[in-house]
């Protein structure tokens, strides 16, 4: 439903992830849009989609690298030159970088990150907030993070930038409390966007717990519209992180987060070695089984009893070898094997009785 016709929202980082979902929510509500990011082709395509799907009247695309000197001033100047009044500003554009600060990460990338996540966000806020205050209306949403309130080893500089965003936002809220201008901080936990991939962190444990970007965007959008000070999307689980962040010692929080940022165990390695172990064991079992079968068929009753004993020992050996492999997948194969083995043992037991009858006869 178009409820905000004639109003304009400016969203940085609208070309993907959370920013794109927030832009869509504004479009659905009838806002005109200013979309800012480096990939102006992506933003142009998005603009077409919004016009077609939601009848958005006016969309301005500004292709800009916001990690460059005075990028915010340039965006502001372009908006002013077009005579656009920004009613809602969303400072979403942001990047992370994974690795040990001392030895792994690249300073030039860190510098660009600080520029984008901190300097540009601050200058964008300064420029547009001044105009909002002079009209005594307007809304700003700043993308903070759950790591705004916890340390985040392996993404130390990123966490520092997000701590800045959160603290900066909460300070502004106090300064603006007697006005109609609101500032809101959005603190998502790990979210399913391209963020971790771009940061070089796609294989970390935390990427197994990501939440839906649309859910995150909706929580941020609703909080912005309601003029709330902050929002942590994701229900009780993420709320409990917040409580933990306030009560637990920093060392404990850092250890918890370090564990989440650890690399996942190499699944291929385990699978490969398990598969290899199982494959070799299975191959040997089949060959030994065939050999025993041939010998069994050509033997007398006494030798047959011996071969049955060997078959049982072979089964036990394979069972022991397999049970030492702890991988879950192999565990279930072992279960399947054991159940087959116990059926086979019943057959062998029946056969033994028959042979003993034959020998005794
Ligand atoms: N995903 C998460 O787990 C998570 C959690 C908490 C907070 N956040 C925050 O949420 C925000 C959005 O991230 P996301 O998860 O949606 O990641 P994303 O899909 O990678 O989106 C990042 C956006 O930032 C823009 N951007 C990056 N560098 C830029 C630059 N130099 N100049 C202009 N625009 C730039 C990108 O556009 P172009 O590439 O077109 O420039 C893109 O639109 C970030 O501030 C991030 O810190 C993310």
What topology emerges from the helices and strands here?
Layout: E1 8-12, H1 17-28, E2 32-37, H2 40-54, E3 59-63, H3 71-81, E4 88-91, H4 107-135, E5 138-143, H5 156-175, E6 181-186, H6 195-198, H7 213-226, E7 230-231, H8 235-247, H9 250-260, H10 267-297, H11 301-323, H12 328-360
Parallel strand pairs: 1-2, 1-4, 2-3, 4-5, 5-6, 6-7
Helix pairs in contact: 1-7, 3-4, 4-5, 10-11, 11-12
The chain binds NADP nicotinamide-adenine-dinucleotide phosphate (NAP).
NADP nicotinamide-adenine-dinucleotide phosphate is lined by residues 13, 15-19, 37-39, 65-67, 92-95, 116, 143, 145, 188, 190-191, 193-195, 198.
Which short descriptors sum up this protein?
7-stranded parallel β-sheet; single chain; alpha/beta; 2 domains; 361 residues; Rossmann fold; binds NADP nicotinamide-adenine-dinucleotide phosphate
């Amino acid at each position: 439903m178009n409820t905000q016709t004639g109003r304009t929202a400016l969203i940085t980082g609208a070309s993907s992830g959370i920013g794109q979902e927030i832009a869509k929510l504004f479009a659905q509500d009838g806002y005109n849009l200013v979309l800012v990011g480096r990939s102006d082709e992506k933003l142009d395509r998005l603009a077409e989609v919004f016009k077609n799907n939601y009848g958005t009247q006016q969309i301005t695309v500004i292709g800009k690298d916001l990690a460059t000197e005075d990028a915010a001033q340039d965006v502001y100047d372009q908006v002013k030159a077009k005579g656009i009044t920004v009613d809602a500003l969303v400072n979403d554009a942001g990047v992370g970088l994974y690795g040990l600060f001392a030895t792994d990460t690249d300073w030039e990338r860190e510098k660009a990150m600080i520029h984008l996540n901190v300097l540009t966000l601050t200058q964008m806020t300064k420029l547009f907030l001044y105009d909002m205050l002079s009209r005594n209306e307007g809304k700003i949403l700043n993308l903070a993070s759950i790591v705004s309130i916890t340390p985040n080893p392996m993404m130390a500089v990123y966490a520092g930038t997000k701590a800045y965003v959160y603290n900066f936002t909460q300070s502004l809220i106090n300064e603006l409390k007697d006005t109609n201008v609101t500032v809101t901080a959005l603190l998502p936990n790990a979210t399913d966007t391209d963020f971790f991939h771009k940061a070089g962190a796609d294989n970390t444990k935390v990427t197994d717990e990501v939440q839906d970007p649309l859910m995150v965007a909706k929580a941020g959008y609703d909080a912005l519209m309601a003029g709330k000070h902050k929002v942590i999307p994701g229900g009780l689980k993420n709320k409990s992180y917040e409580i933990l962040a306030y009560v637990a010692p920093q060392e404990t929080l850092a250890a918890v987060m370090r564990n989440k940022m650890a690399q996942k165990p190499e699944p291929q390695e385990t699978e490969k070695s398990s598969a290899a172990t199982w494959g070799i064991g299975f191959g040997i079992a089949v060959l030994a089984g065939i050999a025993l079968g041939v010998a069994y068929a050509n033997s007398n009753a006494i030798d047959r009893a011996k071969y049955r004993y060997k078959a049982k020992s072979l089964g036990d050996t394979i069972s022991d070898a397999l049970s030492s492999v702890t991988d879950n997948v192999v565990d279930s194969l072992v279960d399947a094997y054991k159940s087959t083995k116990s059926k086979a043992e019943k057959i062998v037991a029946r056969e033994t009785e028959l042979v003993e009858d034959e020998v005794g006869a």
